Amino acid sequence: MFLKGKNILVTGGTGSMGKIFVHRVLTGELGLPRKVIVFSRDEAKQHEMRVTYLNKTATTDEVIFRNFMNVLEFRIGDVRDYSAVCSAVRDVDVVVNAAALKQVPSCEYFPGEAILTNCMGAMNIVRAIEQNRYPVNTVVAVSTDKACKPVNVMGMTKSLQERVFVAANVLNPDTRFIGVRYGNVLASRGSVIPLFHEQIRNGGPVTITSPKMTRFLLSLNQAVDTVFAALKGAGRGEIYVPDAPSATVINIAKALIGARKIPTRVTGIRPGEKMHEIMVSEEEIHHCVKRGAYYAITPMLPELAGKRRGPANALTREFSSADNILSLADTVKLLKQHQLMVDMGRPHEAGELLR
């Protein structure tokens, strides 16, 4: 059990994926940790998360909530602040870097801010471990499909984050730096599905950037599954990518609208957006192997290449959201499977989770 007895730091731990990751770690799925530290700069989100745990009474979560005062710790801090990062990283075994500026238009308008969080934040973690010889076992970089052949600031900064962590393995042989890269997370804060939910409840119109636009689709739990898989199986410098389905934005909207008489409106592509996302580029397929439900992109640096585990060239062309697109019926099925259809009578479960 990889996380048994370990101290775990989650930067950006109050975000959508961070909250689900913390919850599942505390259930002991990979072994009961000694401590989980939620590190973020938003005191309101930390307070809300803390109160949620304090008020939880479900018996199925007894292990978490009976002992959480000893196991779960909240720290206010920013990955941009080197001293705060040093203090948080000092006594931990595992770091999951989920702190990010991730809204594509926001990063286009404020690229300097994206660089500070997505790039300098990553460098602060590496620098803290390297300069202080902290005995951290594993660091996981949470990345995005937008980092693959990036055309927007968010993707460019995330791509640099990946390279910062991969290269960190060369000078830090006692720490394993790895990554995960995945697509649009269903119901994550700021993603399209909560927006569509709200527009449908208000009677529309549902705004669509482009009917032909496609996106990979994963649930929050599948995003966490990817991190868990990397923790258990990734070699130094490897990036894990889930073999995920994709759908058109128009079919996502139609699936959520259903039989309701709600109009749609095409608004055009936002600053920095792609029509289709790519998770593994045509350059990366030459050092990509298949491991179960995941592709592992092995590092290009010769010092880290080593012996690849798994058949090489697992893909014959780049892994794009334009390939193998779900039909409308299959899109409906997927959203139902993850309980993301709109209930007009009450706030949806996913909405309750992410408020």
How many angstroms separate the termini?
A: 32 Å
Strand order of the largest sheet: 3-2-1-4-5-6-10-15-14
Structural class of the secondary structure composition?
Answer: alpha/beta
Q: What CATH architecture label applies?
A: 3-Layer(aba) Sandwich
Rg, Å, rounded:
20 Å
Structural shape: globular
Mean pLDDT over the full residue set = 89
Count every beta strand, where a strand is a DSSP E run of 2 or more residues. 16
Tally of separate helices: 13
Q: What's the helical proportion of residues?
A: 40-55%
Major sheet size, sense and barrel closure = 9 strands, mixed
Top keywords for this entry?
13 helices, Rossmann fold, alpha/beta, 355 residues, 16 strands, nine-stranded mixed β-sheet, three-stranded mixed β-sheet
Compose a concise summary of this entry.
The protein is of the alpha/beta class. It contains 13 helices and 16 strands.
Fold and architecture overview:
With about 350 residues, this protein is an alpha/beta fold. Helices cover about 40% and strands about 20% of the residues. The chain is built from 13 helices and 16 strands. The strands form four sheets. It has a nine-stranded mixed sheet with strand order 3-2-1-4-5-6-10-15-14, with helices on both faces. About 45% of the residues are buried. Residues about 60-65 and about 345-355 have low confidence and may be disordered.
